[in-house]
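To whoever picks this up:

The parser on our side crashed when reading a file containing two proteins. I've narrowed it down to the boundary between the first structure block and the second sequence. Both blocks are reproduced below exactly, byte for byte. First block:
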Amino acid sequence: MKTKAFTLIELLVVIAIIAILGAILFPVFAQVREKARATSCISNQHQMGLAITMYRNDYDDINPRYRLCPDKAADPLCTTASPTVLSGPNEIWWAPYDTSIGPEPAVLPSNYQGLKAGFLQPYVKNQQIFRCPSYRQGQVGYAMSYIYNGPMGQPDAFVTNPEVYFVWDHKRTPGCANTSTVPCSTSSNVPGFRGPFPLDQDQKGSTPHTHYPNRHSEGFNGMRYDGSAKYRKYTNLNTNGNTSKDFLANVEP
């Protein structure tokens, strides 16, 4: 009586089929997981937008600034302070952040207290919203614009462009402006102020995509002044000085 069994050829065919299916499905699963993280990131930014609105309502319609440096008597608004160097013990950012331990500490604090909790702490219930699910290397996964003619620190009536970016995905620090050596026409006549970081410079160098990351399927999420948060390809950004409607608050959208 003969027993039925798989031949070697049949086994190899089955293994090959499983390998092919795995090669097809695994990237799809990865994309689905990233899509879920991107959705969570957009939710974080929506909550930040609500917190900023509540902050503005409590402070005579004035928007929060990205940071204050009260220990620098000649520079209370950090216009010349380095974003990666502690300006003093009373330094405070808009988000939970501590410059004294560096932008990318080996161990992230589990909970910030006092000044290190940031301007928006009274308006949020969970500090985890400041950490993008797709970027866990730094204390904060987002940055607030502090360019010249941006919405930061300005009265609500100053902003005529509701689509201007206020907070978006970022690497390194919770503040973003033109930290390059190339002069920017937007702010060249205003000492201590900066314009949008040039897109072409952000795509090259030793740490590309720092200011406009590609962490979400070759793009990033950004929160506009009107509170809407959306995904966008970084290649479509306009960072050209006085014509940049993506970053200038006092222009027609």
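<<boundary where parser fails>>
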Amino acid sequence: MAKKTVATLQTSTKRLTKAVKMVKSPKTGAYTFVESVMDPDLVNDWLKKR
């Protein structure tokens, strides 16, 4: 399961995006949040992989 939350961060020369994904643990069944800062073009690929 993935919850898509995207915030746009801008630095002086590069545009970055912070993406947050909610992932369910197979062992406990609890949900955790995984965050990553990346190029906006890579967000959809990152959200699709598990």
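After patching the parser it read the second block fine. Residues 10 and 40 are 11 Å apart (CA to CA). Helices lie at 43-48.
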